[in-house]
Amino acid sequence: MKTLAFLPLLALAGCVATPATPPRPAPVTAPAQLVATQGADAVALARWWTAWGDPALDAIVEQALAANPDLRAARAHVAASRALVSVAEGGLYPTIAAQGAVWGGYSDANVDGALGQVFAPYTTTGSAQGRAVNLGASWEPDLFGGRHADVAAARALSDSAALAAQGVRLMVVGDVVENYQQLQGLRQRLALLDRSIATARGLVDYASARMGAGQATAADISKARGGVEQLSAARAPLVALIDVRRRRLAVLAGLPPEREVAISAPDRLSVPSTPGGQVPSAVLLRRPDVQAHAALVRMQAARLKSLKADLLPSFAIHFIGQSGTLELSGLPGYGGSSALAGISATVPIFTGGRLRARVVAGDAELTAALADQDKALLLALEEVEAAYGFRHGLDERLAGLERAADLASQRAAQQGAFYQAGRATKGDALQADLAVLEAQDTLAQARIARASATVQLFRALGGGWDAP
């Protein structure tokens, strides 16, 4: 007969309909291969920074992975999200709580008159004491999978947080390598600039000697000195940029900006070749941002399932047990135990459309998550294609600049030979040397740009993901 009491609730539950949701467009599919030119070398993407072949760089990267503040914060967010998974899992099990109490009392009262004689045995000094223990339990069986969906959503959100932390790892490693190679490139440019200043001063000395011999004018000396001043004016900005890169490396490694980080000689700068054999499917599986969006899609899908379960009946099993005693001096003691068990059911009948609206909103959020996932996939493929293309273009430019620098060196050697043979002046030879140094500086700038493009390529490929 008790079961029959739930039949009206089940009949009402049958009237609850899940809101219709619009069809979702087909997800974007990855192409079979990349269009951009790829390299032929197989580079270990998990620790791609080691391809630079610089132990000092490797040490700074390891220091940053251990102490970078952004990474430490990201790891803390991952720990918090994993704890929330345990919170969600707790909803699958019964809730049990116990309560206990002990009390005591003392009294010293008298009743005057005739009543005092009647109640005399009970109005003398006395005491009271008692204790009670309560035990309660409640459990809501997950008949329609709503609580399991909550657990799945929490796990997907935790996965997203872990993947976001891996994305921070990729960015930190990339920032370290890019700042390091720019620092080394700037040091190379500073050395070339110092050589250019020394050569320009040689031109001043040469012009002064020619003026003393009556072969040059004061204007020639002023022109030579102007060249020295122009070159010298470029030195302070280069030194400042070098200091900026040094401080940035220290901060990335979790150190105060004033701390010096150990770096190798600038001639150790060596940019690795582009990694070959990359296919879009592998890149997308390696990119933490793409996988994080996939985890958010799973989270929204599980959340939608939980919202739909809220439209259905929910049942719960309850138990309450009590045990206690009470003792009063002069009176008989009292004690006993009791227990109560029951089943409850809840059916949403009228909620003003709130539950149905939440389902519609959850479905829309799932559609938005799918669109964001497609966008992340397309942007990832675009970044890889663009990074490969940009690196290839810089390789071509660098090859042309290297040929131009070789030609400048050949011309400087020829001018030096002509000067030794008396067919050219020392000024011609010095001007040719300055042209070589200028060409080498342009070459150094191109190498810095190519190194930065290489870092962007490894980032686009998802290199450095310390996947479990």
Question: What do these coordinates show?
Answer:
- There is one protein chain.
- This protein is of the alpha+beta class and 468 residues long.
- It has one domain: Outer membrane efflux proteins (OEP) (Up-down Bundle).
- A four-stranded antiparallel beta sheet has the order 1-2-3-4, with no helix packed on it.
- Strand 3 and strand 4 form a beta hairpin.
- The longest helix is centred in the middle third of the chain and has 67 residues.
- The two termini are 56 Å apart.
Task: Output the keywords.
single chain; 468 residues; alpha+beta; Outer membrane efflux proteins (OEP); 12 helices
Entry summary:
The chain is of the alpha+beta class and 468 residues long.
Biggest sheet, open or closed, and with what strands and sense?
4 strands, antiparallel
The residue-averaged pLDDT reads 87
| First and last CA, distance | 56 Å
What is the N-to-C order of secondary-structure elements (H for helix, E for strand)? HHHEHHEHHHHHEEHH
Helices, by number, come to 12
CATH superfamily: Outer membrane efflux proteins (OEP)
CATH topology descriptor: Outer membrane efflux proteins (OEP)
Coarse shape: elongated
Fraction of residues in β-strands: 5-15%
- Total beta strands: 4
- Rg from alpha-carbon coordinates: 40 Å
Structural class, judged by helices and strands? alpha+beta
Total domain count: 1
Q: Provide the low-confidence segments as ranges.
A: 1-7, 9-14
Annotate the secondary structure layout.
Layout: H1 7-13, H2 55-67, H3 69-90, E1 95-107, H4 113-118, H5 120-123, E2 126-139, H6 146-212, H7 218-233, H8 235-252, H9 280-286, H10 288-309, E3 314-328, E4 334-346, H11 354-420, H12 426-460
Antiparallel strand pairs: 1-2, 2-3, 3-4
Helix pairs in contact: 2-6, 3-6, 6-7, 6-8, 6-10, 6-12, 10-11, 11-12
